[in-house]
Amino acid sequence: MTPVKKHFTPLMQKYPAVRSRIVALALLVSGGAAGVLAAEGPLLAKSNGRPLAADLPVEVAVLTEAPNVPPPITRRHVAKVIVNLEVREVVKRLADGVEYTFWTYGGNVPGSFIRVREGDFVEFHLNNHPTSKVPHNIDLHAVTGPGGGAASSFTAPGHSSRFSFTALNPGLYIYHCATAPVPMHIANGMYGMILVDPKDGLPKVDREFYVMQGEVYTGGRHGEQGLQNFDPMKAEDERPPYVVFNGSVGSLVGDKALQAKVGETIRIYFGVGGPNVTSSFHIIGEIFDTVYVEGGTVAQHHVQTTMVPAGGSTAVEFKVDVPGTFILVDHSLSRAFNKGALGMLKVTGPDSQLIYSGKEVDEVYIGQASDAGFAASKRESELMLQKEKAMASNPQIASITKEIQVERGKKVFLTSCFACHMANGEGLPAVFPPLAGSDFLKADKDRAIKIVTKGLSGPVTVNGKLFNNMMPPQEFSDDQVADVLTFVMNTWGNDFGTVNVNDVKRVRAQNK
Amino acid sequence: MKTTTGILIFSFLAAASAQAVAPATPPCCPAPESKPACCAGPKPATAATAAACCEELKSATPFTGQSLYLLDAKWTDDAGRTVTLGSLRGRPVILALFFASCEYACPVLVSDIQRLRKTLPESLRSQVQVVLVSFDVARDTPAALAAFRARQGLDAGWTLLRGEAVPVQDLAMLLGVKYKQDARGQFSHSNVFTVLNAEGEIAHQHAGLMGDVSEAAKVVAAVIK
Amino acid sequence: MRPTTATALVRCWLRGIGAAAGCALAAAGWAEDRGGDGMVLIPAGEYRPLIRSKDEPERVAVAAFRLDVRPVTNAEFLAFVRAHPQWRRSRVSRLFADPGYLGDWAGELEPGPRAPADAPVVRVSWFAVRAFAQAAGKRLPTTAEWERAAAAGFTQADGASEPGFQSTVLAWLTRPNPEPLPVAGSGRANAFGARDLLSLVWEWVDDFNTSMVTGESRADSGLERTLFCGAGAAGARDPSDFPAFIRAGFRSSVRANYTVPNLGFRCAQTP
User: Which one of C174, C204, C251 would you mutate to disrupt binding with A, by most A Cβ within 10 Å of its Cβ?
Assistant: First the structure.
């Protein structure tokens, strides 16, 4: 538990929309320009049928690419905000070696983050890039009006549409394409968020981030390489090979992880584009101090996992108290571990042992097994060990075991080793040392294990010749190390003995 | 399948494009590579009618490149008279496509336009001409249109027209109106009316039924002034 | 004017090895038509509308008609604008073509590198392509005719039941347009002998304005009465036929003077 909870103020106090409209009208009728500037609340009030928006100060919305969020709106009056959003169809990375033609708002998935203020008059321009294959439109859940703007923004490639709306309700809202077939447009990446700041602004935090979850229905299975097509059957059956944060596997991992410092307060605007899958949003090792449930007014506190429906959102706030890497997941965990719904928040700064100590003790734990049961298990292990020893000392079994290892090791060698050491084991003169007939290999089995597992750099002499290069450590299992070494020690005329798993374990332990 | 050849629209386009480059050239005087604009029709025009037509048009300033009146198709009104849209030049026109046996939307569209007219001062109202053009090439004879006029109680401020399939399609295309005939012979169609300025250019389009027509009324009033 | 056959072959090859045979023919200037005039006969058959009203039949009869084997090319459209100067870029009225008309051509009478002679002409308005068809003694296909021709698979008259056909169609749909566009007619012929109906560019149809998709696709299954007069729809024939939805949406998104960078056309004829 984080000890200090800071933000108990409701994020979005729902504005009494009807009353504010009357206030706005009164001000405008009596006040002229100054009145307009001071006006609060929605401004779709009409005088002689003309929206008074014409008199408002005009600004162009700052749009940001995830995970960035436009700066909070500091003005305390309504404005006419012009949003220019461009639809582009682009081939982008979905996962390593996997590409997909994404249909985007602004060139990225999710679409550009839009931020306006409660009561603002928004003039929305949807521009469909000339290279687009198909028409698109936009349904903003922040719009009060039929289709959320869908019909008004329906736009052919190489054309542009305009419509306007007043942001009546504060809150965090999804937007998405509503052109048929809608699930395909959304699955291809056509979703994003618009935040309508409440008129008094949001509580100040140190950092704000923008994260959205969505599914991708590729023709190939997860990880299948190359440019993938959309698979309508998988979409219909809701069987996505990918569930991702911010448009691709690994978009928030490594040097792309969200960054923060100990002691900072964080707000994440989290939404689910879908088209189908509800998220169990969770950050491993954090507790949300405040969750604005469904992106609305109700502030819930001390939440572990919050459910965010497709086409819905939430804003979560928390203070980071300790350093480390905190993992963002969809806690419907197959999506995190098998389909990509995983991101990272890296927090740097001083430890706080009182809040989280790190590992203090690691010792054998016997558990509650009954004495009789435990004794039986122990006896079984001893006997198994005896059996292994007996088998190892039997020359016939040893020979068969060696042959099995050689065959297995050959596969490992031909995958990972032959490029340098060559298929004939002779290496490359002056560059890669030979294994065939190598005195260096023959001389020290444990050294060979160490080299495979830890790598080797610097000068070595093999069969009287000097080599000075670098071999990287190999990411092999203990079995693979034993097998590949047994292969190289018993091929090309070599007869240098065998390596078993226990040898590998022992050497690994010595070289930790 | 189309019942007429479509030559008509082609010559109309020829005239329009000629306008765009050389507004000083009378539209009916043939460019070397195109036929006289006003002389085309479903039947080849005779030299005499072409000459008369050219004579008539030379007296007028050419239509602008954006004017719907470049569509020189001949329409028939509910009294059986031949009408061209260009004859409406000089005042605001409210133009809509409809069909007389429409059971729902067209009567509502008519009432929306009535409502718009009522918001105009008497002096302006008389200057506005409402033109309804039928999609229903087969059934909307002048008599059917006359019956519609009677049923709806439409005064002289309303012109009801019928035409051939190709000009109807052309007009719908220019106005961005979608329409489709179903198996019963009824039409699905966009509910749109268009305000044309004195030159026959699109000044405003109003989509939907039973909505706020004040914006359209304002445009009509502005056209008159 | 015409690029060398070798250049065309390279651009063909870029479309994939599967298209190579048709490519070679197209590059050499041959159309694989049966009448020798670049058109194929589409036999009488049926069209199943995607979205229909309650009163509309599930199947609509389509009489036999002739259809261009491939979309009209830049070279062919150039010949048309030479012969009919009123359709040149500088002369056409905005009523009939928006400012993007022939926008990828290098000049008034010069398609240039972005619009190879043998690539399909695009950025042409409905008014312009209808004038082209009339000048050629042809007409534009209707929606029913076009959909009837495009419903054929590569080997079967009904593409929907041909394994792999729908996924090929989807693959085109979800890949960006190549630049410049490939040779018209270099795609694989369908069972009727028509090429590139579903694999090169979108195509105008005569009655595109019968597609009543509002853009608010979720309401279209019950076409809204205040926007469109007409009975409520019986719904979509097959909600999984995504390409058909996209075609209907595309037709609905344009107006007759629009020009679009991946929208071309081909002509039809009544036999």
Answer: C174
**C-alpha distance from C265 to closest chain A C-alpha (Å):** 15
Confidence band for C204, pLDDT divided at 50, 70 and 90: very high
- For residue A259, the model assigns a pLDDT of 95
Token pair for A291: 């969750």
B20: buried, middle or exposed (CB in 10 Å: 19+, 13-18, 0-12)? buried
A131–C179 CB contact, under 8 Å: yes
Give the mean model confidence (pLDDT) for residues B12-22.
38
Given the DSSP bridges, would you call strands A159-166 and A191-197 parallel, antiparallel or unpaired?
Answer: unpaired
Q: Does residue B69 sit within a domain? A: no
The dotted CATH code for A17-348 is 2.60.40.420
Assembly ipTM: 0.79
Round to whole Å and give the CA distance between B136 and B102: 10
* Burial grade of C202 (CB within 10 A; 0-12, 13-18, 19 or more): buried
Pick the closest to residue C240 from A494, A236, B100 (CA basis).
A236
Residue B29 and residue B128 in one domain = no
Cβ of C139 within 8 Å of Cβ of B2? The answer is yes
Nearest beta carbon to residue B190 from set C96, C127, C227: C227
Beta-carbon contacts of C179 under 8 Å, excluding residues fewer than 6 positions away, are: A131, C114
Where in chain C are the domains? 5-269
Task: Tally C-beta pairs within 8 A across B and C.
Answer: 128
The residue among B62, B89, B104 that closes a domain is B62
A130 contact residues in C (CB cutoff 8 A): 100, 260-261
What are the residue boundaries of the structural domains of chain A, listed by start? Answer: 17-348, 399-510
| CA dihedral of A372, A377, A382, A385, whole degrees rounded to 10 | 170
Using alpha carbons only, what angle is made at residue B127 by residues B124 and B128, rounded to the nearest 5 degrees?
Answer: 95
Kindly give the pairing relationship between strand A114-117 and strand A191-197.
Answer: parallel
- CA closest to B215 among chain A residues: A49
B103, B192: one domain: yes
| CATH dotted code for A399-510 | 1.10.760.10
Do B56 and B107 lie in one domain? The reply is no
Contact yes or no for C90 and B21 at CB 8 A: yes
Residues B124 and B207 in one domain: yes
Chains in contact with A, where contact means 3 or more Cβ–Cβ distances below 8 Å, are B, C
Q: Are C47 and C88 contacting, i.e. CB atoms less than 8 angstroms apart?
A: no
Percent of chain B with pLDDT over 90: 49
Contact (CB<8Å) C176/A182? no
How far is it, in rounded angstroms, from Cα A191 to Cα C261?
Answer: 24
Partner-chain contact C229 B68, CB within 8 Å: no
- Point out which residues pair with B98 in neighbouring strands: B134
Closest chain B residue to A51 measured between Cα atoms? Answer: B215
- Tally of structural domains, chain B: 2
Any bridge partners for residue C263, and if so which?
A: C202
Domain at C5-269, CATH class = alpha beta
Instruction: Pick A223 or B198 by higher pLDDT.
Output: B198
Indicate the pLDDT class of residue B20, thresholds 50, 70 and 90. Answer: very low
**CB distance from B56 to chain A under 8 Å?**
no
- Distance (Å, whole) CA A139 – CA A365: 57
Residue burial A370-390, b: 16+ Cβ < 10 Å; e: rest: eeeeeeeeeeeeeeeeeeeee
Domain range for residue B14? 7-62
Q: Number of Cβ pairs closer than 8 Å across A and B?
A: 8
Q: Is the peptide bond before A157 cis (omega within 30 degrees of 0)?
A: no
Q: Is the pLDDT of residue B128 over 60?
A: yes
Q: Are residues B84 and B54 in the same domain?
A: no
Structure tokens at A312: 């819905």
What CATH number corresponds to the domain at position B147?
3.40.30.10
